[in-house]
């Protein structure tokens, strides 16, 4: 749900997590306050096109290679794994990586959702130096990058990712627990668990989900057109939903770059990044990733507020609509919904 269409198909990460727990044991979930100041936290995520990640699945060697490189650089092993982005497979696969490494999982992440580019993390917004990226691919290559800033970390990591087949495992912003305080978004693993549980044992999962998220319903309808292309380590495209029932005669278009970025109706913006926009199955309320969008699906599009960090000037400069090339001034989903209702 928090992947807003991206972060990779959660089913792949969930299977890996279950298998790793069976093989290595349960993974403790720890709060940042429980770690000593000098504990090394390693944010891990898959980087690349979600469509590729469905076929090029991570093995057990990539996290081990990255952990070994962290220990070589810092002179001590990592103390905890953190999800770089809590959305999609990147939100649940860190459970597997933590199990394989015998480490706890930090109840935090760097986005509170999913974003497509390396510098689009809370640590960058908080002003931490983006001076180390470690990557490993499925054939055994390990690449350590010392970029001069966050934008260069994206350019260089993306180039390595493309060379690796548009998919690799990445650690960025290796940081101490002391450095992570105030620079990561805490409680997001617990938040994801609560969202998942909200739709259990209820006859109206969509209603329960909206209540848990505090989400605005943008449209309910049928997918009538999906256009996707994979290039430069991203999936880009559009999806069109024709309204049904009370939304008959309405048409909503979603702009995609791994994630759902902008929702438009008749040329008017209904929701925009960095707020979260997610497509869900109307009957089950299960999230539908961008690579899973298919003609004829009955879906509902939801939108809800992002973490306040992304609404700061630096947050909007990093991951607002203009960061993705849209000539739009950011308007929070609450205000757009109020305008829609005439309030």
TrEMBL record:
Write down what this protein is called.
DUF917 domain-containing protein
Per the UniProt entry, what species is this protein from, by scientific name? Answer: Nonomuraea cavernae
S-Me-THD-like C-terminal domain sequence ranges? 150-333
Which residue range or ranges hold the S-Me-THD N-terminal domain? 2-145
User: What is the top-level taxon of the source organism?
Assistant: Bacteria
InterPro entries attached here?
Answer: S-Me-THD-like_C (IPR048350), S-Me-THD_C_sf (IPR024071), S-Me-THD_N (IPR010318), S-Me-THD_N_sf (IPR027479)
| Pfam families the UniProt entry points to | S-Me-THD_C (PF20906), S-Me-THD_N (PF06032)
């Amino acid at each position: 749900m928090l992947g807003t269409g991206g972060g990779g198909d959660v089913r792949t990460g969930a299977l890996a997590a279950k298998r790793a727990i069976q093989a290595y044991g349960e993974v403790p979930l720890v709060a940042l306050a429980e770690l000593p100041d000098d504990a090394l936290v390693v944010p891990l995520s898959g980087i690349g096109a979600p469509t590729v990640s469905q076929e090029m699945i991570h093995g057990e060697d990539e996290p081990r290679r990255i952990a070994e490189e962290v220990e070589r650089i810092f002179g001590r092993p990592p103390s905890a794994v953190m999800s770089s982005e809590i959305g999609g497979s990147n939100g649940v696969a860190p459970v597997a990586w933590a199990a394989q490494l015998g480490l706890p999982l930090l109840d935090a992440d760097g986005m509170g959702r999913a974003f497509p580019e390396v510098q689009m993390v809370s640590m960058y917004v908080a002003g931490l130096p983006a001076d180390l990226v470690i990557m490993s691919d499925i054939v055994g290559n390990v690449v350590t990058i010392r970029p001069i800033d966050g934008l260069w970390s994206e350019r260089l990591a993306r180039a390595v990712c493309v060379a690796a087949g548009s998919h690799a495992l990445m650690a960025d912003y290796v940081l101490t627990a002391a450095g992570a305080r105030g620079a990561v978004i805490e409680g997001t693993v617990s938040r994801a668990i609560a969202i998942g549980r909200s739709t259990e044992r209820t006859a109206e999962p969509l209603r329960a989900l909206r209540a848990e998220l505090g989400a605005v319903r943008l449209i309910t309808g049928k997918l009538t057109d999906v256009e996707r292309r994979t290039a430069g380590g991203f999936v880009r495209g559009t999806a069109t939903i024709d309204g049904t029932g009370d939304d008959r005669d309405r048409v909503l278009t979603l702009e995609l770059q791994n994630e759902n970025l902008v929702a438009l109706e008749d040329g008017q913006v209904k929701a925009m990044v960095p707020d979260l926009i997610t497509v869900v199955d109307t009957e089950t309320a299960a999230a539908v990733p961008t690579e899973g969008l298919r003609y004829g699906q009955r879906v509902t599009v939801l939108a809800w507020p992002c973490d306040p960090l992304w609404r700061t000037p630096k947050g909007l400069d990093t991951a607002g609509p203009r960061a993705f090339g849209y000539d739009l001034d950011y308007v929070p989903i609450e205000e757009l919904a109020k305008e829609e209702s005439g309030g």
